[in-house]
Each structure stands twice: as C-alpha cells, then as structure tokens.
Design goal:
four-stranded antiparallel β-sheet; elongated; 470 residues; 11 helices
C-alpha cells in the first residue's frame, strides 16, 4: 500500500539507514514538502555508535573506558585499597602485637633478676629507755631461672608462635577479602559502563525514530499511534539508561570508599578473567588459601596450648639465688650485714582440684579446631565445584547469546528495512526487534561480567586474586 505522503516518509526515515530501494521507487518529479527540512537534524542522532549526550542532555562522560592493560589497572586498584584500608591497618597492628607476645613467652626460659630497696626509721627501746635510734637501709637482689618444667615453656612458646601465625594469616585473609571486593566492584563498574553505552545507543535509535515519526505525523495524523508507541519505547530506553547510571554512581561511591578519589577510568572486559582456571589445580590450591592456613595454625596452637596445660600440672625445677645487705645508722660496731644464698627449688603439685578438667577442656578445644579446619576445607571444595559449574554455565550462556545476538541483529535489520522500504511490517514489529536486540546486548554484557566475577571468586579460594593478575 502506498501512502499519499510517500516522499515525505522516505526522506524522514533516511536517518535510519540507506534507502536505495525506496529512493528508486519514489516519484522523481515530486519534490519533498517543506516540513522535510526538520528531519535533517535527526540524522546526527541516529548513529548508535555515538555515545555523546542523550535526548535529555545527560552527560555521558562517566561511560568512558581506559584502553590500557586491564590486569595492571586491577592490580593498581588492589594496591591502592590495601594501602588505604584502616581496617587492614588494625589487623596489621594485631599481627604485630601477636609477634611481641611470642617474644615475651620466649623470654620466660631466660634468667630473671629483681632488686628490692628499702629504707626504714628505727626507734628501739628497752624498759622505757631508748637504746637505738636511726635508720635502716636494705638491698636485696634475687635471681631465678627455670631448669626443668616438662616442656611447659616450650609448649607455651609454640602456642604463641602459632597464634602469631594465625594473626599473620588473618592479615593475609583480610587482604584477599579486600582485593576480591575491589575487583568485584571494578567489574560491576565496568558492567554498568558497558550497559550504559548500550542503552545510550538504544536511546539515540529510539530518538531517531521519534524524530522521523514526528515529521510523518504532521502530514498524516493517522500515524499518531505509531508516534506514541515510539515515544513510549524511547521513555523506556531512557529509564533503563537512568537506572543503569544510578547503579554506576552507587558502585563508584562504594569504590571510592575503598580506593579513594578520584577513581581511574573504568576498565573494559578482561580476557584473563574470562577463562575458567583448571579445576584440579584449584582444588590443590585450596590448601594454600589464607583462611585454610589460618584454620590449620589455629588447630596447631590449640594443640600446643593443651600440651602446655598438661605440662603445667607436673613438677618444676628452678635455680634460685639471692643476696641482701642491711645498713643501720647511727650504730656502733657491726652496723652492716650481708647475706648471700643460692640453690635449687623443686615445686611438686600434690592436690590440684579441677586440674584434670582444665586439661580435658584444652584437649576438647583442640579437637574442635581440627574439625572446624576439616569442615572449612570440605566446604571450600564443594563451593569450588559449585562455582566452577556456575562459571562454565555462564560462559556457555555468553557464547549462546552471541549466536542469538547475531540473529537478532539480522532480524531487526530486516524488520526495519521491510517497514521503511516495503511497508510489510508495522512499527510494533520494529520496536519489538530493536528492544530484543538491545536486551540481548545487555544480557551478553551481564553474562560476561558474571563469569569474570565467578573466576575472581574461584581465584580467591586458592592463592588469591592478586596472584593471577600479576
């Protein structure tokens, strides 16, 4: 069916693509009506590769991405986060405190010495008569050293050593958690940036259709319903763009909390994060994870503590010595007294109510930490299998979406051509084809970044996110 305004329709829709067929069929002697001049500005808005200002004049500078190495960019974000985090700084101080506790326990096996000084006033009387008045000064030096304690101090030292290892692995675990958080946020930011680029192109395409239909409707009021449909699709596309920009701004706020301001440009898709690591290798790397190493150190520390409690209930042998001097003033004759002594002391526990319960409690705590360690390893192994399956499925979904996207692009191109050149399709078919195409592009972006975040999570279960990035 040929519309009476066919020349106007052909020129107004020229912004949507080449119209060689329509131009060949259009009457050569019919000049375009005057309103056609209004269609010229829309041509600059129909290039969907142009991510400039949207229909509402929104600034799209936040959708820019860097062309540098994504791995280096992610590593830079990780370094900035680790240097900035106050929580990590607190964990480092606690790890340092644990090392000082270890030094204190090691010193328990070394000799100790104590010097005591005293000064007293003396007023001595016999039968109501003062026989001595003056001052008394004393100095006592005591020294001691453990000789044998059935390994109590050695086990306490091992306990403190393992606690220091627990604190160090806790610091490493905190670093890995921060690294995973910032990588996840960086990938979310890139996700929203690419989504914003897609929606910007969708908005521009819909704006182009609206501009063309506004010109057509001025000449043919019967096409008003098509204009309303195009305006509705434009509003929906612009709403999706605004929601994406809001999610992008929220993600950037969370990133600034970790990285600081200003944020570097967003990264694109990272090829390194788009490949699943080998499952067998990752199952071996689970034992190298910071949380598993921390659990193992915790179990060893509880074992050493239980052994120290048992050793503390056995006899101990200590070497002791002391020297004291006393001076009385004023006092005639022997006013200075000196005593020196040294020997060995043996302490033998005879009756200790509750000692057996104390030792049993320490042993049970050790067994509990062993079970907790084994549970953590088993949970991570099954979690790894689950995430590997999810990652495989997500990458497969991304590959399938690519094939669907190719067909969707061909469908929308054919539908648009049949509508604008041959009049065999309605505008509703065009809107549906455009919406399906852009929704598949967004689905592909989501699938790729879902897979990348899963890969980062799998890495964090082993040696950490930063190691593969290096």
């Amino acid at each position: 069916m040929l519309y009476p305004i066919r020349p106007l329709l052909v020129f107004a829709l020229a912004a949507l693509g080449p119209l060689a067929l329509a131009q060949a069929r259009a009457p050569k002697a019919a000049p375009p009506p005057a309103p056609v001049a209004e269609a010229a500005p829309s041509q600059g808005r129909c290039n969907e590769e142009d991510a400039g200002l949207s229909r509402l004049g929104r600034d799209m500078s936040a959708l820019e991405t860097t062309s540098g190495d994504p791995r280096a960019a992610l590593q830079s974000l990780i370094d900035a986060t680790l240097a900035r985090s106050k929580a990590l700084g607190a964990v480092r101080l606690l790890a340092e405190a644990a090392r000082f506790d270890l030094e204190e326990t090691r010193a328990m096996s070394l000799p100790t010495a104590t010097l005591s000084l005293g000064a007293n006033g003396v007023n001595q009387s016999i039968g109501g008569n003062n026989v001595a008045r003056g001052g008394q000064f004393t100095a006592t030096l005591s020294a001691g050293m453990p000789i044998w304690d059935f390994g109590r101090i050695a086990k306490l030292t091992e306990w403190r050593k393992e606690l220091a290892e627990v604190a160090m692995q806790g610091q490493r675990s905190a670093e890995e958690q921060l690294s995973l958080n910032v990588v996840t946020l960086a990938l979310d930011r890139s996700r929203y940036v690419l989504q914003g680029q897609v929606y910007t192109q969708y908005v521009r395409k819909m704006a182009c259709l609206v501009d063309a239909l506004e010109i057509i409707t001025k000449a043919d009021r019967g096409r008003a319903s098509e204009l309303v449909q195009a305006q509705k699709s434009l509003q929906q596309a612009d709403l999706s763009l605004e929601q994406t920009m809001s999610a992008l701004r929220q993600t950037e706020v969370r990133m600034k909390r970790l990285v600081g301001e200003p944020l570097p440009p967003s990264i694109g898709m990272t090829p390194t994060l788009s490949m699943l690591p080998d499952l067998d290798q990752m199952q071996s790397d689970i034992l190298l994870g910071a949380d598993i190493a921390q659990a193992e150190a915790q179990a060893r520390s509880q074992r050493s503590f239980a052994e120290s409690v048992i050793a503390g209930q056995k006899p101990t042998v200590n070497l002791t010595g002391n020297a004291s001097a006393m001076l009385r003033t004023p006092h005639p004759g022997d006013s200075r007294t000196t005593d020196i002594g040294a020997g060995v002391s043996v302490t033998i526990p005879i009756l200790q109510p509750g000692a057996q319960a104390q030792a049993s409690a320490a042993v049970q705590r050790y067994r509990a930490t062993v079970l907790q360690r084994d549970e953590a390893i088993e949970a991570k192994r099954y979690r790894l299998l689950e995430m590997h399956e999810v990652g495989s499925s997500t990458l497969d979904r991304a590959r399938r979406i690519v094939d669907i996207l190719r067909n969707s692009d061909r469908v929308r191109a054919s539908t648009l051509q049949q509508w604008q050149q041959l009049g065999r399709r309605s505008l509703f078919d065009v809107m549906a084809a455009e919406g399906d195409y852009y929704s598949m592009r967004v689905a592909h972006v989501n699938a790729m970044f879902d897979a990348q975040q899963i890969v980062a999570l799998i890495w964090s279960m082993g040696r950490g996110v930063a190691t593969p990035l290096r």
